[in-house]
Amino acid sequence: MTFQKINGYISCLMKKKKLKIVLYGIAALLVINMLLPTKIQNPVEGCGKESYNPKSFWHPWGDHKHAGIDIFANKGTKVHPAIGGIVLLTGHNMGAGGNCLLIFSSRWRLHYYAHLSEIDTHIGAIVTQKSVIGKVGNTGNAAGKPHHLHYSISSVIPQGDWRWEPKQILFYINPIKELEK
Which pTM does this prediction carry? Predict the structure, then answer.
């Protein structure tokens, strides 16, 4: 057996071992993700139930449904993650959401925060419920309206009853029900 053949064989084994490690890592992440805490908090500092309309989720809003809730507060009020996770996206002047960010958390959920006056985090940051991720504002299509945070939760995995129409609601979770658990 030549040195090249031995080297090729070892290289092939190393690639398979690395693939196995990656697959075990993905499996571990899947299990860990399902075990992480799921209790959320109101993301706007000092705000409670009186700060949002309990009937605002999935309420008709122009040509679509309002897939989250608006939490009203003074401009500049600190915004914390409703639940810990990893920041997947931050953006300024991102259309209707204005200054917004997206956090991936347990149970394969995405938490969206929009209309921020400031963003105080970055993509890839691991945040906890104590972190400050931004401040309440009125950017995007909230310009000229009272300052608030638009907060929504969506899921990568469909949830709920498949008989519901429209089917999009299967990917959205009512934040009010989650806050009141």
Answer: 0.79
